[in-house]
């Protein structure tokens, strides 16, 4: 479709398309994180920790040998479930409240930029950051591991890492969007960070413990289906369950407390769809909060 | 105290500006019965005005008078509770996002992105407006930022930031430029630069709305002003119309007057009736416009030829209207503005 060219005074320009606007905002966010070394830091942390888990994980048992794929993945999933949401929160907590404090949000909204363009642009930019960090961090680890594992284990390793990276990116985006919702709802950066850290604490650390305690103590009255549902409502548990079920290393799911999920018949595809639904719902929520605000 | 009832004032505002319109360009911004209400607080009440292309409109008023609310309404960021607002002939209600292409805006105290360079910032905003990249270089050159284009904004002075802000506002060669306190915290040279640029844009047909407290600076640049107080329009018009509305006297200052001449002067019934502001070093009287001719005649009769008569300044007019507001800090506002003005004049 041809675009209308507007002539105003001596300048000639085209009203930008939605995708151009979203991409412009996304590239600005990506470059910001590249410039302030956040991207390098995140990738570095993921790389160092995943290398430690993969190559030094056996040190606690008194030996230094390469762990089995299932044990490596178990460690990496536990690592990712802590680090990725935290990283995503730190990436997104000031996305809107920070721009509001500096006055640039007001300025941006005077541009031919709809509010959902801004939400999508920022999300895309932060997705670029998380994709780069996950691919660099976990990708380098898998390349190194491939050199050490036996031929028959390589396929499972590659598949496992693909699931880990892909679901890790989706999990990060869920927390990035949670960050947007909070960032749009509060008036101070410090408050946004505080609320998000509390959310991280509840979703990542407390939620599972409370559920397991409830299951153990109320085993007779607790409906198993309800338990499974409550686990899958939490995106971090969804990520954990997805990686344990999708991993070709059979021994893994059997060892996990989340093995019960396997009995529900839910496959990785459905779990990916649930993570994507989380992203869609939170994206809509963030856009809705933003659209209701007067600046 | 205001000299007009609300209706009369609003009709007058429209009439004054519509009369000017016949000899000027198209209507760039038009407000009809504009109101904004937040819960129990009325931010703007029944505001009517028109601004034409190539004109500068000064928005004057105390803090919280409704200036920024009006600017945000024109930008489409705040919806009016009642009334209609047209920008470039397009109603705010039906305005599409692309209508913002004809608007340029410089917010108050915008800090931009400290970790980006001037060129990166302008390029970013240019992409968002669909402006060709070559325009960025032209503007950097035009606003004297070419030498600093690769420096991060954190190293910029306040003046450089405001120049960058104005460059950002004129990226798409706007038809309507909105400036919210553009000269706050700037030194006289930086302020002069901004006003010089504003004059150039005005000459190119850009309609400018400037919200400011620096009355001395804006007085020579504006074509008309809206004086707002507590969300209401207190007065509107160009400087001569504002003087007429406020009915403020001119200030007569006599130079080199001997004590004998001064005694003779104040013994005259005409001068005795005038408000005398004389001090040890200055001989000053307030002269209502109706008496101006008689006063000059009397001075010539007394062989006093060295004198000056200055009409009321924008600052005097502003003080006059603010003093009429029933606000606990109205006098404080007036004195604060006055002090700021005095300091500027001293520096100049």
UniProtKB/TrEMBL annotation, chain A:
Organism (species): Shewanella decolorationis S12
Keywords: Membrane, Transmembrane, Transmembrane helix
Pfam family, one: ABC2_membrane_2
This protein's name: Copper abc transporter permease
Iron among keywords: no
Keyword Transmembrane helix found: yes
Segments passing through the bilayer: 38-60, 72-93, 130-149, 156-180, 192-219, 269-290
Automatic annotation (TrEMBL), chain B:
InterPro entries attached to this UniProt entry: AAA+_ATPase (IPR003593), ABC_transporter-like_ATP-bd (IPR003439), ABC_transporter-like_CS (IPR017871), ABC_Transporter_VariousFunc (IPR051782), P-loop_NTPase (IPR027417)
Ranges of residues in domain ABC transporter: 29-255
Top-level taxonomic group: Bacteria
CDD domains: ABC_DR_subfamily_A (cd03230)
Keywords from the UniProt entry: ATP-binding, Nucleotide-binding, Transport
Pfam (any one): ABC_tran
Stretches that traverse the bilayer: none
Lyase in keyword set: no
Name of the protein in its database record: Abc transporter-like protein
């Amino acid at each position: 479709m041809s675009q209308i060219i507007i002539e105003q005074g001596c300048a000639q320009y085209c009203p930008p398309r939605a995708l151009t606007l979203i991409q412009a905002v996304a590239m600005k966010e990506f470059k910001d994180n590249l410039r302030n070394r956040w991207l390098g830091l995140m990738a570095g942390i993921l790389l160092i920790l995943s290398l430690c888990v993969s190559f030094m994980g056996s040190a606690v048992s008194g030996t230094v040998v390469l762990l089995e794929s299932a044990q490596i993945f178990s460690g990496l999933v536990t690592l990712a479930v802590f680090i990725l949401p935290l990283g995503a929160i730190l990436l997104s907590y000031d996305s809107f409240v920070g721009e509001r404090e500096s006055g640039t949000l007001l300025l941006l909204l005077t541009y031919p930029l709809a509010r959902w363009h801004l939400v999508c642009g920022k999300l895309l930019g932060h997705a670029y950051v998380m994709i780069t960090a996950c691919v660099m961090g976990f990708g380098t680890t898998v390349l190194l591991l491939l050199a050490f594992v036996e031929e028959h284990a390589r396929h499972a390793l590659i598949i496992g890492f693909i699931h880990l990276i892909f679901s890790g990116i989706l999990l990060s985006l869920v927390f990035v969007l949670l960050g947007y919702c909070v960032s749009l709802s509060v008036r101070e950066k410090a408050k946004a960070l505080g609320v998000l850290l509390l959310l991280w604490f509840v979703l990542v650390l407390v939620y599972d413990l409370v559920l397991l305690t409830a299951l153990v103590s109320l085993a007779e009255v607790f409906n198993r289906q309800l338990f499974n549902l409550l686990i899958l409502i939490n995106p971090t548990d969804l990520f954990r369950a997805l990686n344990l079920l999708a991993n070709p290393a059979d021994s893994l799911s059997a060892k996990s407390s989340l093995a019960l999920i396997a009995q529900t018949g839910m496959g990785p595809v459905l779990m990916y769809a649930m993570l994507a639904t989380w992203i869609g719902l939170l994206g809509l929520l963030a856009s809705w909060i933003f659209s209701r605000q007067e600046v | 105290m205001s000299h007009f009832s609300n209706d009369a004032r609003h009709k007058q505002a429209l009439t004054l500006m519509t009369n000017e319109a016949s000899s000027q360009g198209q209507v760039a911004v038009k407000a009809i019965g504009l109101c904004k209400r937040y819960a129990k607080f009325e931010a703007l009440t029944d505001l009517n005005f028109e601004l034409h292309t190539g004109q500068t409109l000064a928005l004057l008023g105390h803090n919280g008078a409704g200036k920024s609310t009006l600017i945000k309404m024109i930008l489409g960021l705040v919806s009016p509770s009642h009334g209609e607002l047209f920008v470039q002939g397009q109603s705010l209600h039906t305005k599409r996002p692309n209508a913002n292409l004809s608007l340029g805006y410089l917010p108050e105290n915008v800090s931009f992105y400290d970790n980006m360079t001037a060129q990166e910032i302008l390029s970013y905003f240019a992409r968002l407006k669909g402006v060709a990249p070559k325009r960025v270089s032209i503007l950097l050159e035009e606003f004297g930022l070419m030498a600093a284009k690769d420096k991060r904004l954190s190293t910029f002075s306040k003046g450089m930031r405001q120049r960058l802000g104005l460059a950002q506002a004129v990226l798409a060669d706007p038809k309507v430029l909105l400036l919210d306190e553009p000269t706050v915290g700037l030194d006289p040279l930086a302020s002069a630069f901004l006003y010089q640029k504003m004059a150039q844009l005005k000459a190119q047909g850009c309609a400018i709305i400037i919200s400011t407290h620096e009355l001395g600076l804006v007085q020579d640049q504006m074509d008309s002003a809206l004086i707002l107080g507590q969300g209401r329009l207190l007065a509107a018009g160009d400087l001569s119309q504002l003087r007429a509305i406020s009915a403020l006297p001119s200030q007569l200052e006599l130079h080199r007057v001997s004590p004998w001449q001064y005694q003779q002067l104040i013994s005259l019934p005409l001068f005795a009736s005038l408000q005398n502001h004389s001090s040890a070093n200055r001989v000053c009287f307030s002269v209502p416009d109706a008496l101006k001719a008689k006063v000059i005649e009397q001075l010539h009769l007394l062989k006093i030829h060295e004198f000056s008569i200055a009409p009321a300044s924008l600052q005097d007019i502003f003080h006059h209207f603010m003093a009429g507001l029933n606000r606990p800090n109205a006098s404080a506002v007036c004195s604060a503005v006055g002090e700021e003005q005095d300091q500027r004049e001293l520096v100049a």
